[in-house]
Amino acid sequence: MAERVSIETATFGLLGPLAHTPTRTMSVHCVIFRIGERVILLDTGFGTREMLEPNRYLGSDALLSLGIVVDVRLTALHRLAARGIRAEQVTDIVLTHLDADHAGGLHDFPGATVHISAEELAAYDEPRSRKSYHPYQVSRQTTLETYGPSDEQWFGLPARSLPLPRDLDAKLIPLPGHSRGHRGVAYRENGQWTLHAGDAYFDARINFLDPPPGLPLEIAMQADSCDRVASLSKLRELRDRHGLEVAMFCAHDYQEYISWTVGRGRADPVDVFRTTLP
Ligand SMILES: [Zn+2]
């Protein structure tokens, strides 16, 4: 019998500000899929290791340049516990990419199978290819499922379906540029598609201008400028052509996060931070 998939979103971290935009706080917008007792995450945010020893695991450069709020209560492990979910219930984690603010929390869920693009894992395995890849995130014990190109299409974009439970329709959508193997993750909820665009854009009000100005953070962090701009164009086209059929949000646009969660009546308990952080 089909099991109902319950979908919630949460921010597993806070960063910011993103200079020159109205965005002062940045979310780490992640998704929690519940199918019975089983839980599947889309991105993890930072983990407990980074929050408990930030100088050691994140370093002063990242703390300062990204404005990372250090509080272990923001981690996926703690946010899930607040919802009554145990770490052992997390069987799978789908990642947009392997930067620490998206994959840092992997070590808190050692039993989960990690789903990632083959290109992203290859980039991660190259020595010193990216400062925000941390070597301790993926260990020999990590169970990995990698995905290369396929002939599948989704609203005119290349896609790769994920072998998750039958009732959870989810696909990796190549949006390279921020990192080499960066992917959006599309999923269907009650027949409606949503695309988590990861870090393909940072601020919906700025990045969808035509042409978009370059934001310092996205340029500083990009693996390939041409790929990043091309991915942004694809998203603009998707929004123009299929905006009614596909909802979209990214990881770090806090206004998007607020409107998405409040609009759905599912504000995260971490909202206590809103009283102290703008
Ligand atoms: Zn990020």
Automatic annotation (TrEMBL):
Assigned keywords, A-Z: Hydrolase, Metal-binding, Zinc
Gene3D superfamilies xrefs: Ribonuclease Z/Hydroxyacylglutathione hydrolase-like
Pfam families in UniProt: Lactamase_B
Segments forming domain Metallo-beta-lactamase: 27-252
Top-rank lineage group of the source organism: Bacteria
Chain coiled-coil ranges: none
GO function term, MF aspect, one: metal ion binding
KW Zinc (keyword) present: yes
Family designation: Belongs to the metallo-beta-lactamase superfamily.
PANTHER family: BLR3078 PROTEIN, QUORUM-QUENCHING LACTONASE YTNP-RELATED-RELATED
Protein name stated in the entry: MBL fold metallo-hydrolase
Taxonomic source organism: Methylobacterium nonmethylotrophicum
